[in-house]
Amino acid sequence: MMSQSADLEAVRSYHHGDLRRAILESTLEIIDKQGLEAVSLRAVARRLGVSEAAPYHHFSGKQELLAVLAADAYRSFGECLTTAVGSAADDPFARLNALARAYIEYGLESRGRYRLMFGNHMVDLGEYEEVQVAGRPTRAILESVIAGCVGSAKVDAAAIENISWSLCHGLTSLIGESEIVFDGGSGDGERLIEVGISILIAGIRAHLGLPAAS
Amino acid sequence: MMSQSADLEAVRSYHHGDLRRAILESTLEIIDKQGLEAVSLRAVARRLGVSEAAPYHHFSGKQELLAVLAADAYRSFGECLTTAVGSAADDPFARLNALARAYIEYGLESRGRYRLMFGNHMVDLGEYEEVQVAGRPTRAILESVIAGCVGSAKVDAAAIENISWSLCHGLTSLIGESEIVFDGGSGDGERLIEVGISILIAGIRAHLGLPAAS
DNA sequence: ATGGTATCTAAGCGGTGTTCAGATTGCAAG
DNA sequence: CTTGCAATCTGAACACCGCTTAGATACCAT
């Protein structure tokens, strides 16, 4: 009997057979296809042919369900960034370039997941420790990349990290959500990303007292 | 009789006496005090001692109400930015500095209004012409400031505009919403703003081929 | 005074998140 | 194998929400 393995929670199969997992998958599908706002516990339950109260036996509520999915998203996001940085040239700023590109591209490709992690919705993700834990390695990548750029310079590396993060987040939001105040025919997101990262890196280099060229 | 002035819509006073305006004020108060998500047409109506269906005689629905308030917010936001730029030193990058500071500070002080304009909620603000019109001058400020920085250089000014906007938006979000992935004890938002703008300006200068100092 | 129009109300539709008592089922111990 | 516990699921309900409709009410210009 393989019932001993508790962490292999795929075995849970009572009346429905692996609800929880089905709920997670179904909800993620809705997030990807119809967007974050379209998620509704009742609808998910209905779609799975199960009572509308059933999900509450696997999640304390909608917030927790979304928090679990957010933690998943953080993990996959982190892996994506790690891969990108790993396959970049062996140069600190080339790594930063790859990191920023990967960040923005992930955010544009997986808008729903991205908004789940960084969007402003009712959920206080920060209150779920699982989410915090899942997000920490992602942050660590950024820290190591920036540490490489900063080298032994005496500057506030954390500030540079947050600024890099901010620019990526801002660009992703601007391109992805096409906010108002976005008229200039510069609809070319690709160029925007390129120039944005270039300006970021040039700014950091200047801030560190490094010469302009690579 | 002062009934001829139609644009002075404060005179509208039937059963309740200036509902519409009361709804707008009450909703704005909720946005400021309890946040955007706490807005509910029914609650507003109840709070004003009026039927829960009454608001629908002044707004086609919740979306339109929020769109009207968003347009207001854009106007006040634009005025704030204009003032800041106007009282800055007569130098292109000093103006950009003032603009960015004013942007971020407004976003941090008026989080509710800021999220109404730039947050991700159910409302498609872009579909309301009034919002577009109200946002255009705000964009124009940015355009003129960046135009001053760019001068006669042959670069894509619109891209630089959008990147500046993105960094401001990203920083505002990061500091204001304290997203996850924000552990570094660099809780000093003031320093973050300072370094952020400094890096942005240095990056733009480098992108334009200008020397580092001012 | 009268008619039209703007305004407001009451009631209702369908949707949501959530809770609760009770029915059902699987599993493990006796 | 039976018994009992605990996990799982259901049906009904509560309190909200946005929105619509039919009808009552009040104002204003004629």
What brief labels describe this structure?
0% strand, Tetracycline Repressor, domain 2, DNA-binding, 8 helices, homodimer, 2 domains, Arc Repressor Mutant, subunit A, 214 residues, mainly alpha
Structure in words:
The structure is a homodimer. In chain A, helix 3 (about 60-85) packs antiparallel against helix 4 and helix 4 (about 90-110) runs antiparallel to helix 8. Mean pLDDT of chain A is about 90; it is low at about 1-15. The first copy, chain A, has about 210 residues and is mostly helical. The N and C termini of chain A lie far apart (about 60 Å). Chain A is built from eight helices and no strands. Chain A binds a DNA duplex (30 and 30 nucleotides) through helix 2.
Secondary structure blueprint with pairings:
2 copies of one chain form a homodimer.
Chain A: H1 21-34, H2 41-47, H3 62-86, H4 92-109, H5 111-118, H6 129-150, H7 157-177, H8 189-207
Helix pairs in contact in A: 1-5, 3-4, 3-5, 3-6, 4-5, 4-6, 4-7, 4-8, 6-7, 7-8
Chain A binds a DNA duplex (30 and 30 nucleotides) through residues 3, 12-16, 19, 40-43, 50-54, 56-58, 61-62.
